[in-house]
Design a protein that fits this description.
The chain is α+β, with helices and mostly antiparallel strands. The chain is built from 26 helices and 26 strands. Helix 1 packs across helix 11 and helix 3 runs antiparallel to helix 4. It is found in: Cell membrane; Endomembrane system.
């Protein structure tokens, strides 16, 4: 039984400690092989062990997550657009509720701050409530102001204290303990005031409690809003799908829901409308804009018999399209699935942040207790300073920034890549693309246009060129290979299609008109015991001209050499030059003969050439380079080069149709031309820079902020103590700054 993978939508995660905890707990389950939890996407990807059914696995994992006080449900993906719409509505509703609580919270916090601190900076305060004249009223008003703020921020205490009791504190726990300590100490001070000790009026921290909750709530709202922007690239893909279509029958059309359409139906797409399905053009000719799907800026001309993709924008003429793929089977749906999967995956660079985040909150809580004890027991400062320092440590140290540093950058970068026609399947591929030392290219269809033509035909014995081409075309009649198409295009006679045997890396053998016919390279002739001595001069001449020679034999006797030439892509020189400037070594691995491969390589300035390479040879060559410690990428067509793409550290598969999910490789290049390789490499480097910036900020913030909050500056040099309010504000802004920095990748070009 093969291993089963599924995705869960998680609710209730507030920081990296939450995602790290779920990941660690679930990964230890007997049913689970591997799990990856993403904080920005609120999703978990789970891989079950062999023999575990999906039903049992999903049930066990959801129950375990719910025991951790988080919500979880299976993300079926039955209808990606509807699922996204529902999640988008829930997210918008949650964001709206967050926003509604902010104005009263901020207003109360401002009044509280004015009453508690205003008199210290000369601001007027009614005599009735000044601490000198009426300390009890001064304390009571602050208590009445802070209680509504704490009620509006009740989730901090509900979730934070619950997680603390279970032994798994998170960011909410830090806020709950920090503000709770400030509140309880202030209640104690208030009681002391009412018992007659007015000096405790200066030991009230109600304003710290209220302002902290308000500032952290603002920060969470800004973070949530930024995360919605970070995920909006997926939304732009989702919005490409129309919700209705014009079903076309017997010369007339009617508007119906997409759910009412079936495979084989015909739809009418008017100029300026988006194509609702993948299909084949039955009638009409137009130009179709696929830029938001493939990154191709120039509209693609389509005519009768051509293919169109759901989400594309029809140009100037109406089209009647026969449906070949619907709903989740369309290319757009496959792209969305790949991007969502990549966004939920983890890059190796995230491992350090995950480990630190898991232990971070307990360490901070220990440090806060040690800070309190140190100031209370070993200094001459008042106890209020010890409380202040403890609160500052708790509220300034938030693991959110660390937890968001890597996955948010990955989320934005993979979605941006999809908009540019570069589908990155997972975060490991995104990271690896920026570390490549060597790139190996297939030749046909990759460095060349893959549209060869028959330019030379030499015959032996009594066979004419026409007869030789007819036999070759009969063998190639059922093939979709570019060389087969070239031979079929050159043949002018009637073709009798056969069922040939394909010998990978060699050619074809079959029976035509009762004769055994073989068509392929020199190695095939050796395999078939055919003497190729007659072809020596022809082979030499064709190779010198960078033409691919195909040898044709009938009943074990050589009768012809057919010369096929391909054209180098116009951008190949430019792209290879750019790669060399980036310090990346280039090589070409081709199944063509060595002289032909060398000729193309010399034209393009490629560093190394391997010709006459079988699929397994390509994988072996890449393995040998990897054994030298090099990071190797392979660029190929995703089908013939599958072994090499799998062997490489990162495989770039050139998409050759609408079935994106069938492509081999780690990165799928939807756009025609090699510029997509440069796009992928530069996007990876940009994403890695962004991640390192985020991690540097997140770790640097905590490394510098915690000692200051503990009072190190005050203890050593008599410097200021950090106000809990400033610490809370800095904590809220740190997470937002990380997300905003990641959002810069939306503008990558």
């Amino acid at each position: 039984m093969s291993q089963i993978k599924f995705e869960l939508a998680i609710k209730g995660m507030h920081c990296a400690a939450c995602s790290s905890r779920i990941e660690r707990v679930v990964s230890k389950m007997a049913e689970v092989e591997k799990v990856s939890v993403s904080l920005p996407t609120n999703r978990a990807q789970v891989l079950l062990k062999d023999g575990i059914s999906k039903t049992d696995g999903v049930k066990a994992v959801i129950e375990r997550i719910e025991k951790l006080n988080f919500g979880a449900k299976l993300s079926e993906g039955a209808d990606l657009v509807k699922e996204w719409q529902k999640e988008n509505e829930e997210s918008a509703k949650a964001l709206s509720l967050q926003f509604k609580s902010l104005p009263p919270m901020i207003a109360l916090a401002v009044v509280l701050l004015y009453i508690s601190m205003g008199h210290m900076v000369g601001l007027p305060l009614p005599t009735l409530i000044t601490p000198e004249v009426s300390p009890s009223v001064f304390a009571l008003i602050q208590l009445l102001l802070v209680l509504p703020i704490m009620y509006l921020g009740l989730h901090f205490y509900r979730d934070g204290l619950s997680n603390l009791i279970q032994g798994a504190p998170n960011m909410d726990s830090l806020v709950a303990v920090g503000t709770g300590a400030a509140f309880l100490y202030s209640i104690y001070s208030t009681l002391m005031i009412f018992t007659g000790d007015a000096s405790f009026a200066m030991n009230l921290y109600f304003e710290s409690c209220g302002v902290l909750i308000a500032m952290i709530s603002i920060g969470q709202y800004m973070e949530a809003k930024s995360k919605r922007k970070a995920s909006d690239a997926i939304g732009s893909l989702m919005r490409l799908v129309p919700q209705t279509a014009r079903r076309y029958e017997k010369g007339s059309s009617e508007v119906v829901k997409l759910s009412e359409l079936m495979l084989g139906d015909a739809v009418l797409v008017q100029p300026g409308e988006r194509i609702p399905v993948d299909g084949t053009v039955l009638e009409g000719a137009s130009e179709v804009d696929q830029s938001l799907l493939t990154g191709e800026s120039i509209p693609v001309a389509v005519k009768e018999g051509g293919s169109v993709i759901a989400g594309s924008l029809n140009g100037t003429h109406p089209l009647i399209v026969k449906i070949t793929h619907l709903g989740n089977d369309t290319t757009l749906a496959q792209i969305i699935r790949l991007v969502r999967s990549a966004q939920s995956s983890k890059a190796p660079v995230a491992a350090l942040a995950d480990r630190v985040s898991f232990y971070f909150v307990p360490i901070v809580m220990v440090l806060s207790v040690l800070t309190f004890c140190a100031w209370a027991l070993f200094s001459d400062e008042p106890i209020s300073l010890a409380v202040k320092a403890m609160i500052s440590v708790l509220v300034i140290a938030c693991p959110c920034a660390m937890g968001l540093a890597t996955p948010t950058s990955i989320m934005v970068a993979t979605a941006r890549g999809a908009q540019l026609g570069v589908l990155i399947k997972n975060a490991v591929a995104l990271e690896m693309a920026g570390k490549v030392d060597v790139i190996a290219f297939d030749k046909t269809g990759t460095l060349t246009l893959g549209q060869p033509k028959v330019v030379d035909t030499v015959t032996f014995s009594d066979y004419s060129k026409e007869a030789a081409l007819r036999l070759a075309a009969s063998l190639e009649a059922r093939s979709e290979h570019p060389i087969a198409k070239a031979i079929l295009a050159a043949n002018k006679e009637e073709v009798f299609a056969t069922q040939p045997t394909v010998l990978p890396g060699l050619g074809l053998v079959g029976v035509v008109d009762g004769q055994k016919v073989a068509l392929g390279n020199a190695s095939l002739m050796v395999h078939e015991s055919v003497d190729i001595g007659l072809a020596k001069d022809a082979l030499s001449r064709m190779s010198s001209l960078a033409r691919t020679p195909l040898l044709l034999a009938v009943n074990g006797k050589l009768i012809s050499v057919i010369g096929v030439a391909d054209t180098v892509r116009p951008e190949s020189n430019r792209v290879l030059k750019a790669l060399r400037q980036m310090g990346i070594r280039t090589l070409m691995i081709s199944g063509d003969n060595k002289r032909t491969a060398q000729k193309i390589a010399s034209e393009l300035g490629i560093d190394e050439v391997y010709g006459e390479a079988l699929p397994q040879d390509k994988a072996r060559i890449i393995g040998e380079l990897q054994a030298k410690g090099l990071k190797v990428a392979m660029v190929g067509d995703g089908l013939n080069d599958a072994p090499a793409l799998a062997q490489a550290d990162i495989g770039f598969a050139v998409a050759d149709g609408v079935d994106v999910s069938a492509q081999a490789g780690d990165v799928i290049l939807m756009r025609h031309g090699l510029e997509s390789v440069l796009t992928a490499l530069r996007l990876s480097k940009a994403a890695l820079r962004n991640i390192y910036q985020n991690l540097g900020w997140a770790f640097g913030y905590n490394i510098l902020g915690i000692p200051v909050a503990m009072g190190v500056l005050h203890a050593l040099w008599g410097g200021p103590m950090l106000s809990p309010m400033i610490g809370g504000t800095a904590m809220a802004l740190s997470s937002t700054s990380v997300v905003l920095n990641a959002l810069r990748l939306r503008f990558f070009k």
